[in-house]
């Protein structure tokens, strides 16, 4: 374990909760454009953006980074969702499209709290053969994520927790299975990371997402909470004893227990509690949008 954050700078560590699904073939991009919530037509080869897959009612099934390696090769980098289950669900919508969907168990994901060597912003560094590098940095500092066929990165739960906490601090919800199919992109404040489009053509849930946006009905979004003891996704958040919202994601950075909660955008200041634990709200960081 690495109790000293300075000692961990630049050290590569495994991110075993990150998995890769590959979409390949002539219709890969067309299939992704029809299914996923961000606009792939605006994404050039060699770049990536945040995206996700929704239920027909506009609830988030999975949130991921979508890498466009070339016109016929896309990778979905899943930080939490089960890739086997998701790939099987996507396969049901292939029909006659010329697209292959494969869980890439041969690929390994690692992270480092250091600037990337090649990647910048949404530009992908490296290539699928030698290894792909992404810039996952934000206002709180630099981060590099690599997708490799061979990795010798150490397994360190403390560094993995620090990575997840960084995500939460910048508004990237790390949703456990208990929180899938529950929340719209707006309720998860995914506009902060440019993860969905309200102007592209049809995709599952698009009507709900667009109507909510254009009718100005966004009433809830994310708040960052901190506490001195562990919080758990699915717990209720209360303000002065009254129900206020719900915890959707949790992490521990080694110093504080963090959580993201869906709360009303307009609310009065009041003492906050999750269960018997006092919590306080902190501002969300910026810079993770791509």
UniProtKB/TrEMBL annotation:
Protein's organism: Agrilutibacter niabensis
Q: Which superkingdom?
A: Bacteria
**InterPro entries in alphabetical order:** TrmE/GcvT-like, YgfZ/GCV_T_CS, YgfZ/GcvT
SUPFAM superfamilies recorded for this chain? Folate-binding domain (SSF103025)
The protein's UniProt keywords, in alphabetical order, are:
Transit peptide
Coiled-coil zones? none
This protein's name? Folate-binding protein YgfZ
State whether keyword Transit peptide applies.
yes
């Amino acid at each position: 374990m690495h109790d000293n954050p300075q000692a961990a700078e630049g050290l590569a560590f495994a991110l075993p909760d990150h998995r890769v699904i590959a979409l390949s073939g002539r219709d890969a991009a067309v299939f992704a454009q029809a299914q996923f919530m961000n606009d792939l037509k605006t994404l050039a080869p060699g770049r990536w953006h945040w995206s996700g897959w929704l239920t027909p009612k506009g609830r988030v099934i999975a949130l991921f980074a979508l890498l466009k390696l070339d016109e016929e090769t896309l990778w979905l980098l899943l930080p939490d969702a089960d890739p086997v289950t998701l790939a099987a669900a996507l396969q049901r919508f292939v029909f006659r499209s010329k697209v292959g969907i494969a869980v890439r168990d041969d690929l390994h994901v690692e992270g480092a709290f250091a600037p990337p060597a090649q990647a910048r912003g949404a530009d992908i560094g490296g290539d699928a053969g030698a290894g792909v590098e992404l810039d996952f940095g934000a206002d709180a500092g630099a981060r590099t994520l690599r997708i490799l066929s061979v990795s010798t990165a150490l397994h360190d739960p403390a560094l993995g927790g620090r990575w997840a906490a960084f995500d939460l601090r910048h508004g990237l919800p790390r949703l456990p299975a208990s929180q899938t199919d529950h929340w719209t992109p707006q309720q998860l404040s995914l506009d902060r990371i440019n993860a969905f489009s309200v102007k592209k053509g049809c995709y599952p849930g698009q009507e709900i997402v667009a109507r909510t946006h254009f009718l100005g009905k966004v009433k809830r979004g994310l708040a960052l909470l901190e506490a001195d003891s562990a919080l758990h996704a699915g717990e209720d958040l209360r303000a002065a004893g009254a129900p206020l919202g719900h915890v959707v994601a949790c992490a521990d950075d080694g110093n504080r227990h963090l959580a993201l909660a869906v709360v009303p955008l307009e609310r009065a200041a009041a003492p906050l509690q999750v269960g018997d634990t006092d919590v306080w709200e902190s501002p969300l960081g910026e810079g993770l949008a791509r």
